[in-house]
């Protein structure tokens, strides 16, 4: 049979940026609340593969979350500069321990143009310099934009897994070759 793939996503963002709205929309299944921990999950078929997306929604990052996550979504509100500053800090924290973990940056509340405080260019520029994905969405308006964000991140996670696997393969070949040559030289 077909194996189901699990992807753990940490959804980070300051207060009031729209994390809860995002997760409630996306997930029909609430896994549980353990103290201040809430994990949700959703099963999707992406590129013909069944994927179980687990989402941990949080305002701050712990070591445990850093280890748990396969990918991160950093959400800010385009109406709140403080929330944009917050994801910058979180990005630095993430990069310190998980150098190459896939990250997607999301500017939410795109429908509130009259209250915009962070330009699209600023968000896009940050994402470009930090090698992250970038989207502006309105969680309140459309479910589709938010779904795209998650699917993009799942794609990045799967690419990075495939890369790690092939890197391990190459390391194995290098070990084998050097073992053979090493023996030859010793003979
Ligand atoms: N106009 C608009 N309002 C939004 C959008 N997303 C969320 N909101 C509203 O913003 C408020 C905060 O949304 P939440 O989803 O509770 O935010 P949160 O990030 O979970 O906040 P905390 O629980 O404090 O961490 C709510 O009143 C939402 O209805 C959006 O895209 N557009």
UniProtKB/TrEMBL annotation:
Superkingdom of this protein's organism: Eukaryota
InterPro entries: P-loop_NTPase, Ras-related_GTPase, Small_GTP-bd, Small_GTPase
EC numbers for this chain: 3.6.5.2
Top-level EC class as recorded in UniProt: hydrolase
Keyword Hydrolase: yes
PROSITE patterns assigned: RAB, RAS
Pfam annotation, one family: Ras
Single annotated GO MF: GTP binding
Reactions it catalyzes: GTP + H2O = GDP + phosphate + H(+)
SMART domains: RAB, RAS, RHO
Keywords, comma-separated and alphabetical: GTP-binding, Hydrolase, Nucleotide-binding
Family, similarity comment: Belongs to the small GTPase superfamily. Ras family.
PANTHER family from the UniProt entry: RAS-LIKE FAMILY MEMBER 11
The protein, known as: small monomeric GTPase
Annotated source species: Kryptolebias marmoratus
């Amino acid at each position: 049979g077909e194996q189901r793939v699990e992807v753990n996503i940490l959804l980070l963002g300051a207060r009031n940026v729209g994390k809860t709205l995002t997760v409630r929309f996306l997930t029909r299944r609430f896994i549980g609340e353990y103290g201040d921990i809430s994990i949700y999950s959703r099963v999707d078929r992406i590129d013909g593969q069944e994927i179980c997306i687990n989402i941990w929604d949080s305002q701050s990052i712990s070591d445990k979350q850093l280890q748990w996550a396969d990918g991160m979504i950093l959400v800010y509100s385009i109406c709140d500069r403080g929330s944009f500053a917050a994801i910058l800090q979180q990005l630095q924290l993430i990069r310190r321990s998980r150098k190459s973990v896939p990250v997607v940056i999301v500017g939410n509340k795109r429908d509130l143009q009259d209250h915009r405080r962070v330009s699209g260019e600023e968000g896009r520029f940050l994402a470009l310099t930090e090698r992250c994905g970038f989207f502006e969405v309105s969680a309140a308006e459309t479910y589709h934009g938010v779904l795209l964000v998650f699917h993009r991140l799942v794609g990045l996670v799967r690419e990075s897994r495939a890369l790690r696997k092939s890197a391990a393969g190459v390391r194995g070949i290098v070990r084998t070759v050097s073992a053979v040559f090493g023996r030859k030289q010793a003979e």
